[in-house]
Amino acid sequence: MTSKREREAGDRVEDEGLDNESKRQRLDEDSSPSPPPVSVANPLSGLANNYADIDEEEDDVRRERGSVNERSNDGSHHNGHNKYGEADDSDEEDDDSHEQFTGRNRQVEVRKDCPYLDTVNRQVLDFDFEKFCSVSLSNLNVYACLVCGKYYQGRGKKSHAYTHSLEAGHHVYINLRTEKVYCLPDGYEINDPSLDDIRHVLNPRFTAKEVEQLDKNKQWSRALDGSSYLPGMVGLNNIKETDFVNVTIQSLMRVTPLRNFFLIPENYQHCKSPLVHRFGELTRKIWHARNFKGQVSPHEFLQAVMKASKKRFRIGAQSDPVEFMSWLLNTLHADLKTSKKNTSIIYECFQGELEVVKEIPNKVISDKKENSENQNNAEKLSDGVNERYAFVKETSKMPFLMLGLDLPPPPLFKDVMEKNIIPQVPLFNILKKFDGETVTEVVRPHIARMQYRVTRLPKYMILHMRRFTKNNFFVEKNPTLVNFPVKNLELKDYIPLPTPKENEKLRTKYDLIANVVHDGKPGEGFYRVFVQRKSEELWYEMQDLHVSETLPHLVALSETYMQIYEQQQ
């Protein structure tokens, strides 16, 4: 016979056992993985940070399980452990280790065949724009849908790409960084050689042998829409008043050593500057012979320019191509130069040297009395000062990347026909500025008389004509035409040149390879460029997307603003 008190104690133990058993069952139900949702109603529900792949999602599941266990054991916990919690923790560790084996170390299945490859639409693929997810605007782990061309993040079950694959029925995706192609929502990797052309458009590659043959190639390439284009002679998209960038890029693409350097990324892989890598990408896309379309959009390069120049040059604001060329060359040099030597591919191509003789006025003051008369004819004696100047000479040598040439002033008065005659000047006349004798008077930073003489010629000489003058009210444009030779510009006949070293030949002949032109009023006009194609020695006129063949003698009939000459070897 048991007493009443013993029976109550026994009932309490059974109840506690049942409670703990039911708790444990509830815990197991909570911690068991829920089946994946078949479809997601809202594509934005995946949160902007869900860029992770499968591995990171399983981390989230494990964290959720841990929080559930902590909440369920909160009442009977002591220092994070109770007599039942220990057993549950060990069960959970077993689950974790099982998940780590199946999830973290899981190899992605690779298949050679995929039933969805025929849905890939190359017409809509455009890899010129920034690699950002179209939903979360993140640049981490971005995939391109090869069916619609849009960019999405991740490929895990909570990611935007996974959601898109379920909602739109688009199943083939390429990782924009690793270039691996996956089928979603199945999650296997596709290894099919028919996708190699997409990889080549995403990231064009050149071998050293291909780079050498570029200037000998006369073959046209065909775009997907059936149009033909010449590699290296493709139009550049004018995003919004970015023609000043386009003409600068097209001109620099004619500089062979610079182009060859940027066509092979290994040459500048040590550099961390985004501007250098974006310029290299743009160079490879312009010269790529397997593009899907006959033009390139310099969008990523412009974003890098805006960031590096702190929005000095930006989309939607017209700028000066001479200023942009100067900034770009100096910035690329600063990013590419090594700490040991102050040299780079930029200096190797464009740097020359000038000897500058500066005459600075030194005041010599003598007192003198002067009479001045006011309007009331009242005579008044005032002390005046007569200033005389003695000039002090300073000689120095300075490097240059481009030479600025001054144009003669245009006529002020109209002729008998009520028209302003557009004056013309030979290039040799304005090159006399660098003969070491012609005096150029400057006002800034202080009044001085300057004489310039070239002491070292660069391989590629950039000349720019100072067409625009700013005053307090507006910008004026000088319409003077410059007559210049397209081939065989002989400098030694017009400016004194340095004597060459022993066993060295002085190369003084130059050929024009690019000519930038400004049309229209200052501040309102637009820029275009004439460039030479070396393989056939033909000239092309390029204005944004428009590329057309032209005659050499038409190159000199426009208001030239900037030129690049190549030294004859």
UniProtKB/TrEMBL annotation:
Protein name stated in the entry = U4/U6.U5 tri-snRNP-associated protein 2 isoform B
Q: Which GO terms describe its biological process?
A: protein deubiquitination; spliceosomal complex assembly
Q: Name one GO cellular component term.
A: spliceosomal complex
InterPro entries recorded: Papain-like_cys_pep_sf, Peptidase_C19_UCH, Ub_carboxyl-term_hydrolase, USP, USP39, Znf_RING/FYVE/PHD, Znf_UBP
Keywords for the protein's UniProt record, in alphabetical order:
Metal-binding, mRNA processing, mRNA splicing, Nucleus, Spliceosome, Zinc, Zinc-finger
What range(s) does the UBP-type domain occupy?
A: 112-209
**Which residue windows does the record flag with biased composition (Basic and acidic residues)?**
1-12, 20-29, 60-77
**PROSITE patterns registered for this protein in UniProt:** USP_3 (PS50235), ZF_UBP (PS50271)
Domain of life according to the entry: Eukaryota
Compositionally biased tracts (Acidic residues): 87-97
Source organism lineage?
A: Eukaryota, Viridiplantae, Streptophyta, Embryophyta, Tracheophyta
**Sequence segments annotated as region (Disordered):** 1-106
Cell compartment(s), UniProt: Nucleus
Indicate the family of this protein: Belongs to the peptidase C19 family.
Molecular function via GO = cysteine-type deubiquitinase activity; zinc ion binding
Q: Does the keyword Iron apply?
A: no
Residue span, USP domain: 234-568
